[in-house]
Amino acid sequence: VMPNKTSLKAAYPNPFNPSTNISVDIPVEGYVNVSIYNANGQLMDNIYSGNLGVGEHSFIWNADSHPSGIYFARMSANEVVSSAKLMLIK
Predict the structure, then answer these.
(1) Are the beta carbons of 61 and 17 closer than 8 angstroms?
(2) For 20, which of 9, 11, 12, 88 could close a Cys bridge (C-beta 3.0–4.6 Å)?
(3) What is this structure's pTM?
(4) Residue 12 three-state SS
(5) What tens digit of pLDDT does each residue of 32-65 get?
(6) HEC profile for 27-75?
């Protein structure tokens, strides 16, 4: 089944330790950026930046080098920006 809208799905597992799966649905091929920010809005990691084809795409964020806390996954694609709250518990 092809996605009908651009979306950032809920991360799984969440809360997590030390890695979580971040999935995005892309209905139209184009440029996609998936990044992780801390609660202060600082960029922590760039998970993916580049062109993606139509479909569901999954990325793993390994936060082994980051402290416990609240983080945000941010996806921008096809003029859509979406974010999801992540909780790292060590």
Answers:
(1) no
(2) 11
(3) 0.93
(4) strand
(5) 999 999 999 999 999 999 999 999 999 999 999 9
(6) CCCEEEEEEEEECCCCEEEEEEEEEECCEEEEEEEECCCCCCEEEEEEE
